[in-house]
């Protein structure tokens, strides 16, 4: 992706109402997410030119911050409840089972292992497996089957 295209992409996403955006091309991964009036960026495979970040920082009512992979792995407790959250990696439709007739992947009280598929998020007609990020027990399923989810929205609480 050319520099001008990158700046245009960042500016367009910043000006939109999207809460999250991920882009991957030729081994370069770009991830942007919004939390209220803050925009966070993470890039893997290549550095984002400083000029691109400065263009976004100059946008009114926006601040930019680098987001590290370590930040993604940190868990936050929802309403001071114990456990770790598994969040949606993309915008789409949440499904608890592989089909309408099938049993759910997991339910509250089920034990899960790191890497185990626990749900599906459909985005643009593609079914994306959601895997557990750690071992534990499902304390809560935070989203109803068939419900639309946003990037970064908590899906499960694991204890």
TrEMBL record:
Keywords, comma-separated and alphabetical: Biotin, Fatty acid biosynthesis, Fatty acid metabolism, Ligase, Lipid biosynthesis, Lipid metabolism
Pathway: Lipid metabolism; fatty acid biosynthesis
InterPro entries, per database record: AcCoA_biotinCC, Biotin_BS, Biotin_Carboxyl_Carrier/Decarb, Biotin_lipoyl, Single_hybrid_motif
CDD domains: biotinyl_domain
Tagged with keyword Lipid biosynthesis: yes
Domain annotation Lipoyl-binding: ranges: 83-159
Segments forming a coiled coil: none
Function: This protein is a component of the acetyl coenzyme A carboxylase complex; first, biotin carboxylase catalyzes the carboxylation of the carrier protein and then the transcarboxylase transfers the carboxyl group to form malonyl-CoA.
NCBIfam families membership: BCCP
Name by which UniProt lists this protein: Biotin carboxyl carrier protein of acetyl-CoA carboxylase
Organism, scientific name: Bariatricus massiliensis
Gene name of the encoded protein: accB
């Amino acid at each position: 992706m050319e520099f001008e295209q990158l700046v245009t992409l960042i500016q367009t996403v910043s000006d939109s109402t999207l809460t999250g955006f991920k882009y991957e091309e030729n081994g370069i991964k770009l991830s942007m997410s919004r939390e209220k009036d803050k925009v966070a960026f993470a890039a893997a495979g290549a550095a984002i030119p400083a000029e691109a970040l400065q263009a976004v920082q100059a946008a009114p009512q926006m601040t930019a911050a680098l987001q590290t992979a370590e930040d993604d792995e940190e868990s936050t407790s929802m309403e001071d409840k114990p456990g770790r959250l598994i969040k949606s990696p993309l915008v789409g439709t949440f499904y608890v089972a592989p089909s309408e007739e099938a049993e759910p992947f997991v339910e509250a009280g089920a034990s899960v292992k790191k890497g185990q598929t626990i749900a599906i998020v459909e985005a643009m007609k593609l079914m994306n497996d959601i895997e557990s990020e750690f071992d534990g027990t499902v304390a809560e399923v935070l989203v109803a089957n068939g419900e639309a989810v946003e990037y970064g929205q908590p899906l499960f609480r694991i204890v």
